[in-house]
Design goal:
six-stranded mixed beta sheet, 9 helices, Uracil-DNA Glycosylase, subunit E, alpha/beta
């Protein structure tokens, strides 16, 4: 199978090792069977394309101050293209919003060699394989959690995490609440309530800088076609993220 044009890390042995482990993962039999079945059968519109059919790594700027966490790759989106939020309607909304906010060099993301580059932003997912009916199980989420934990640790400049949807919100909180400052709240069951533009303060990063978890409705067609999520609402999320983002450490 082809490999992505740009490594998820954009350079760096640790990122490259993580990407290699993600793309080789076969921990969840149900997800492995589904992603490979979809890649074999293909949608008619893409029947002449070679599907990625593997777990999809994160993508973006390793010096990112903003981390965006989605649910999982779309069966005929990331599972086809090999890049997260690429080649589907949700990705159209996400990268257009990131472009308007100044995080992306172009508003579209059609395939992994289309020239898209992110600045100050990294895009990832709670689950790395396309799930049947777009619904991963809690066990599948937990199996993927170590990948998100390691990603967060490597993205040392991140100060704001935007979670797209409740599933991503819960997954991001479960990772970031393991820091000392929020462990007691997590243990007490006080998981912050998900709502569009909800915020939750996280423990400071190792350098002592504050970090924030910020919520958005997922840019799925279920939300965008019904007007539950509009472009102004989505833009407000990334405007707030930019306002919360702290400067990079001095070089």
């Amino acid at each position: 199978m082809p490999s992505p044009e740009q490594p998820a890390a954009g350079g760096g042995d640790d990122f490259e090792r993580l990407e290699a482990e993600i793309t080789a993962c076969r921990r969840c039999p149900r997800l492995v069977a589904w992603r490979e079945q979809v890649a074999e059968e293909r949608r008619a519109a893409f029947r002449d394309e070679e599907y990625w059919g593997r777990p999809v790594p994160g993508f973006g700027d390793p010096q990112a101050r903003l981390l965006v966490v989605g649910l999982a790759p779309a069966a005929h989106g990331g599972n086809r293209t090999g890049r997260v939020f690429t080649g589907d309607r949700s990705g159209d909304w996400l990268y257009a919003a990131l472009w308007r906010a100044g995080y992306a060099n172009q508003p579209t993301s059609r395939h992994r060699d289309d020239g898209l580059a992110l600045s100050g932003c990294w895009v990832s997912a709670a689950v790395r394989c396309a799930p049947p009916a777009n619904k991963p199980t809690p066990e599948e989420r937990d199996a993927c959690t170590p990948f998100l934990e390691r990603e967060v640790a490597l993205l040392a400049e991140v100060s704001v995490v935007v979670a797209l949807g409740r599933f991503a919100w819960d997954a991001a909180w479960s990772v970031l609440a393991r820091d000392a400052g929020t462990r007691s709240a997590r243990a007490a069951g006080r998981r912050p309530t998900f709502a569009h533009l909800a915020e939750a303060a996280l423990a400071p990063d190792p350098a002592g800088r504050p970090r924030t978890l910020l919520a958005s409705f997922h840019p799925s067609q279920q939300n965008t076609f019904t007007g539950r999520l509009t472009e102004p609402m989505f833009d407000a999320v990334f405007a707030r993220a930019a306002a919360l983002t702290t400067p990079s450490r001095p070089q």
